[in-house]
Amino acid sequence: LTARLQGFGTTIFTEMTRLAIQFGAVNLGQGFPNFDGPDFIKEAAIAAIRAGANQYCRMSGLPELNRAIAAHQQRFYDLSYDPDSEVTVYSGATEAICATLQALCDTGDEVVLFEPFYDSYRASVTMAGAVPKVVTLHAPDFAYRPEELEAAITPKTRAILLNSPHNPTGKVFARGELEHIAGLCKRFDLIAITDEVYEHLVYEGSHVPLATLPGMRERTVLISSSGKTFSFTGWKVGHTCAPPALSAAIRCAHQFVTFCTATPFQHALARAFVADDAFFAGLIAEYRARRDRLCQGLRELGFGVLAPAGTYFVMTDIRPLGYADDVEFCRMLPEQVGVAAIPPSSFYEHPAAGRHLVRWAFCKTDDVLDEGLRRLQKLP
Ligand code: PMP
Ligand code: GLN
Q1: Residues in domain Aminotransferase class I/classII large (predicted)?
Q2: How far is residue 361's CA from residue 340's CA, in Å, rounded to a whole number?
Q3: Atom of ligand 2 at shortest distance to CA of 31?
Q4: For the chain, how big is the Rg over CA atoms in Å?
Q5: How far apart are CA 125 and CA 115, in angstroms?
Q6: CATH architecture of 39-272
Q7: Is the CB of 92 within 6 Å of ligand 2?
Q8: Domain spanning 3-30+278-376: which CATH class is it, in words?
Q9: What is the spatial distance between Cα 127 and Cα 125, in angstroms, rounded to a whole number?
Q10: Is any atom of ligand 2 closer than 6 Å to the C-beta of 163?
Q11: Most buried by CB count within 10 Å: which residue of 21, 126, 252, 313?
């Protein structure tokens, strides 16, 4: 293993899902739905395979999908992107993040991340030869301190990577915070990389893409993924929207990472992005009910529940139940209780800030949430 990758170990998702399988645990850890997305999307993928759409497609994405993504950005956010020169399709948001950092960061450049961060960020920044500069979102409300963000910016800063709605906290950044971040990007001539994969899972307030703020579209790489919105995480189709010069640079990396993304899934998702309003409203209503069910159950068990405004995760404080260490708690849980969860301290550069927290996923049917809660009554 190269020096670059030393210390990254095995991702916490692999570790916890392995324990869940080994002990037959209810998996409230890794964030994937235990149900499929809509039939019309599945049928479109099957039809595309039958119709022979099985070879490489255009490197930057199937033209119909790029057009559908551009139409989606216009419809929900009033953001205009040219499908051919400004929208690009990848094998998941994970690849989009990695290719963006490869394309835009030189060795020694610094990228500001908010911790806790989705675990691929720090690895992707490091693989690009850049250096992560980490700003803490402080529990329990996960606000950042403006002076801490300002202090993280140096002459070497190239980009701020912002994830809202935020995994694992469920935080949706407030407009005032976005305005502050946008102001810094403009003042110090930084690129904003925004991970918006949970854009349609917002229960309080609304999702505001940073690119919609004045002066931000031209300096923002907006990243999202169809995995969360359409409940097909295993299809791994993500995208970026960015001005032509930034898109061209990122494509330069993408063409040598994967070149292009699975063709039949792109045909299917071209239908998905133009789904009717009832689909998107139904998605939120279903997830809100799941969120409320799990939060209520965890509260009754005695956890300190930090109810999320967005995403399909909830953070809980484990101290009221007499536990102090998230990793110990989550390693014990599958075997002793038959439930799996995620210890968020692996999403921190300063793990002490997250030791008392545990993340639970509610992208699960009611029977699974109820069974998980029932088993948790046996907590030692
Ligand atoms: N960013 C965040 C914040 C995520 O939670 C995830 C999904 N786990 C991803 C990116 C990756 O998305 P994809 O599966 O499309 O690569
Ligand atoms: N994004 C999902 C989560 O946060 C899982 C990602 C993964 O398995 N790498 O749980």
Answers
A1: 26-376
A2: 10
A3: 10
A4: 20
A5: 14
A6: 3-Layer(aba) Sandwich (3.40)
A7: no
A8: alpha beta
A9: 6
A10: no
A11: 313
One digit per residue, the tens of pLDDT, for the chain of length 380 reads 999 898 888 899 999 999 999 999 999 999 999 999 999 999 999 999 999 999 999 999 999 999 999 999 999 999 999 999 999 999 999 999 999 999 999 999 999 999 999 999 999 999 999 999 999 999 999 999 999 999 999 999 999 999 999 999 999 999 999 999 999 999 999 999 999 999 999 999 999 999 999 999 999 999 999 999 999 999 999 999 999 999 999 999 999 999 999 999 999 999 999 999 999 999 999 999 999 999 999 999 999 999 999 999 999 999 999 999 999 999 999 999 999 999 999 899 999 999 999 999 999 999 999 999 999 999 99
Which ligand 2 atom sits nearest the alpha carbon of residue 29?
Answer: 10
Residue closest via CA to ligand 1's atom 15 equals 92
CA of 236 to the centre of ligand 1 (A): 9
Closest residue by Cα to residue 229 from 270, 255, 256, 201:
201
- Per-residue model confidence (pLDDT) at position 9: 87
Non-local CB neighbours of 10 within 8 Å, separated by 6+ positions: none
Do 3-30+278-376 and 39-272 have matching folds? no
Atom of ligand 1 nearest to the CA of 225: 15
Backbone angles phi, psi at 324, to 5 degrees: -130, -15
Phi and psi at residue 290, to the nearest 5° = -65, -40
Report pLDDT digits (tens) over 227-282.
Answer: 999 999 999 999 999 999 999 999 999 999 999 999 999 999 999 999 999 999 99
Residue-range domain boundaries for the chain: 3-30+278-376, 39-272
